[in-house]
């Protein structure tokens, strides 16, 4: 709420407080919304203060000059806009709430004119129509409260899906490569646009080999120093595999030292997300510190593990790192070669992960390695892989499942 008409002393106090010690205060009035907000903002821990109420209670609260980081206010019970009483109430909120405190409003009005009015004219930071889900809170509200929004919020830029092996050799590259191939094959029917597979292994990448392609050049320089990479780097580093599928990979001699920087990583992602709707990434493990920013940029992190104890331990650590980096848990776990010899029993795997793995892929035998040696994609050499990979591909890119498609269709028909 932007209005300078508030006690200067409050602003003074706020400035001396370390930002994280201030609370996010929420005024909510129904159980479902309270549950969604509490669950979606769980990473904020004890710095979220949920109170019963709405606009009136919020105004009263701000009159007390309590320092807060942000406010979430349900205005469903506030006077109707047409009554002419909503605007004065929001003006009063603007006069009491410090201007640097972002205010997120919730309400039942779904009219775009209402949205424009409260956000563009009355200065609310954003407005969310109810009902609010935990997922929506997690995706749209949490990053903005954590200050991580700019990189991951731009709705128009492509989605980054990072594939990480819990440890070496568990099949991360296999699953990344074959997922993009499967997505590309489905793309036309499913209205999926341009897809890139980025291999961040600069020296020993195997994505190109699995695809029977040759890596391009220019990726290393762009990852090192954005200032030195020109506008054409993408053209040189990208190999078109078909009309909509592209491989972005570098092939550096193993004795050439690459000094990748976080700025370079962000730059490469900025460029790729402008051009591609989906950017799948084969991430080196352990994730080099200068690439850790990637965990924050990723829409989803796919953690691949084998059914063994080290895999469980490392998958757990990776999930924590990714959750901490992004502020919300956007990790999918894939138990690969689930029935391999000596595999841990499923209940032990679930206990170790704290939940069931999101996807399970069986051991598909020696033909998988044979495919690598032939430079053929496993998806064509081992057709069963397609069936096992399909649920993962659909989920990570957010395509409707067959069940939800049937459901929405039957709803349309029954109207
Ligand atoms: N479900 C599966 N069944 C049988 N073999 C598999 C399966 N998944 C992967 N493989 C085989 O396991 C080997 C290692 O796979 P891949 O190179 O994808 O692992 P990675 O995690 O990327 O390893 P690295 O740490 O070297 O990057 C390959 O030969 C691959 O064909
Ligand atoms: Mg690999």
Topology:
Blueprint: H1 8-16, E1 23-28, H2 31-40, E2 48-52, H3 55-63, E3 68-74, H4 86-96, E4 103-107, H5 112-121, E5 126-129, H6 134-146, H7 149-153, E6 159-165, H8 172-187, E7 195-199, H9 207-211, H10 219-224, H11 233-237, E8 238-240, E9 245-248, H12 262-275, E10 278-282, H13 293-297, E11 300-305, H14 309-326, E12 331-336, H15 346-353, E13 359-361, H16 367-374, H17 378-381, H18 384-397, H19 402-414
Helix pairs in contact: 2-6, 3-4, 8-18
The structure holds adenosine-5'-triphosphate (ATP) and magnesium ion (MG).
Word description of this protein:
- The chain is of the alpha/beta class.
- The chain has two domains: 8-147, 3-Layer(aba) Sandwich (Rossmann fold), CATH 3.40.50.2300; 153-396, P-loop containing nucleotide triphosphate hydrolases (Rossmann fold, 3-Layer(aba) Sandwich).
- The protein is 44% helix and 16% strand.
- The protein is built from 19 helices and 13 strands.
- The protein has helices at 8-16, 31-40, 55-63, 86-96, 112-121, 134-146, 149-153, 172-187, 207-211, 219-224, 233-237, 262-275, 293-297, 309-326, 346-353, 367-374, 378-381, 384-397, 402-414; strands at 23-28, 48-52, 68-74, 103-107, 126-129, 159-165, 195-199, 238-240, 245-248, 278-282, 300-305, 331-336, 359-361.
- The strands form two sheets. The protein has an eight-stranded mixed β-sheet with strand order 8-9-7-10-6-11-12-13, sandwiched between helices. It has a five-stranded parallel β-sheet with strand order 2-1-3-4-5, sandwiched between helices.
- A hairpin with a 4-residue loop joins strand 8 and strand 9.
- Helix 3 packs parallel to helix 4 (86-96).
- It is elongated.
- 39% of the residues are buried.
- Mean pLDDT is 84; it is low at 1-20 and 403-415.
- Bound molecules: adenosine-5'-triphosphate and magnesium ion (MG).
- Magnesium ion binds at residues 172-173, 206, 282.
